[in-house]
Design goal:
Order of helices and strands: HEEHEEHEHEHEE
Radius of gyration: 33 Å
Largest sheet: 4 strands, mixed
Shape: rod-shaped
Structural class: alpha/beta
CATH class of the largest domain: Alpha Beta
Number of helices: 5
CATH topology of the largest domain: Translation Initiation Factor IF3
Distance between the termini: 106 Å
Oligomer: single chain
């Protein structure tokens, strides 16, 4: 008896298979998609057993219900895997933040690096923020070096999406998951090969002086 017959809330849709199919007749589809026609359910179940497959009800709301021969366990596995892939593709990318100081010690840097690697592996972006205080503001190059060094240690799982940006007392950098994309040189900027007769000849130096008028 279904949830609807019991009067309870509807549960998640689930196919009936093999002995759970109790109608008298079904329309059977082979595992190769061939239409095998309408037959007694017992006959369809016998064919499933002979083929070492499952009899799965795929369209229960028609008369007679449509069933198909398949490896039900394999079909469920493939469907669940596809659902997981779709969920990953629809994942919302979050911007995480790691706060640093110009004098952050190595132990703290190692801890933060592991956290950054985990976020990047999960597909999130990470903003590195260094806040300078007092005399530290006179040496922004130290903060820049901290960011560059930390970004370099996670280059196997992330790349710099937005380089160092000073913002008052802070300097920030944003990392994105994946390795840095390869930039292709456009045809307009690519060096052109020298003419055949000029190969091996050193190029003449260009002068900034304008030609004198005669």
């Amino acid at each position: 008896m279904s949830n609807r017959d019991r009067g309870g809330p509807p549960g998640p849709p689930r196919e009936r298979i093999n002995g759970a199919i109790r109608v008298r007749e079904v329309r059977l589809i082979g595992d190769d998609g061939a239409q095998l026609g309408v037959m007694l359910t017992t006959e369809a179940q016998r064919r499933a057993q002979e083929a070492n497959l499952d009899l799965v009800e795929v369209q229960p709301n028609v008369d007679p219900p449509v069933c198909k021969l398949m490896d039900y366990g394999r079909a469920r596995y493939d469907r669940d895997r596809k659902d997981r892939e779709n969920k990953r593709a629809q994942k919302v990318v979050e911007l995480k933040e790691v706060r640093l100081a110009p004098d952050t010690d190595q132990h703290d840097l190692d801890t933060k690096r592991k956290r950054i690697q985990g976020w990047l592996n999960d597909g999130n972006k990470v903003q590195l923020t260094v806040r300078m205080r007092g005399r530290e503001q006179a040496h922004p190059d130290v903060a820049r070096r901290v960011l560059a060094d930390l970004a370099g240690t996670v280059s196997d799982v992330g790349h710099i999406e937005r380089d160092v940006l000073p913002e008052g007392r802070t300097i920030t950098m944003i990392l994105a998951p994946g390795t840095a994309p390869v930039r292709r040189q456009s045809a307009a900027t690519a060096p052109r090969p020298a003419p055949q007769g000029d190969r091996g000849r050193a190029p003449a130096p260009q002068s900034d002086e304008s030609p004198s008028s005669s």
